[in-house]
Write a structure and sequence with these properties.
Length: about 130
């Protein structure tokens, strides 16, 4: 791919920290989303239902919709999306805590002309589209 081809592509990274105030509501919403997904094969549906029932972070991963973030943006098309969720220890008052606190993983990734790459989070619930 030439530089001209790759310059059309932009990577946007967003990291969110959510406080789960009602884990049962999150689980119910994820189960509803899974039940209403017509493209999900029954075997995968059963596995997904078990995962979201056991882990709120997994339930949140099923509710995050990267397509929804960019669907109203004119002139762009989502090519690929990867997202993950994991439980974390959160102390916003700690000087050691930050949104990009896990960037030590980036040492092994090549930084290209359009920003650094980022390996997938192996500990979290990961979903890839594209």
């Amino acid at each position: 791919m030439s530089t001209m081809d790759t310059s059309r592509y932009v990577r946007i990274r967003a990291e969110l920290v959510l406080e789960v105030e009602d884990a049962e509501a999150v689980t119910r919403a994820a189960l509803r989303r899974i039940a209403e997904d017509p493209g999900l094969p029954e075997a995968e549906r059963t596995g997904a239902q078990g995962s979201v029932t056991e882990d709120t972070a997994e339930a949140l991963a099923h509710l995050v919709d990267p397509f929804g973030l960019v669907s109203g943006v004119p002139g762009v098309g989502l090519q690929q999306a990867t997202w993950s969720s994991e439980r974390i220890a959160y102390d916003p008052d700690s000087p050691d805590w930050g949104l990009d606190g896990d960037d030590d993983d980036l040492d092994d990734v090549h930084d290209g002309p359009h920003g650094p790459g980022r390996p997938a989070d192996e500990d979290g619930a990961e979903m890839t589209v594209g």
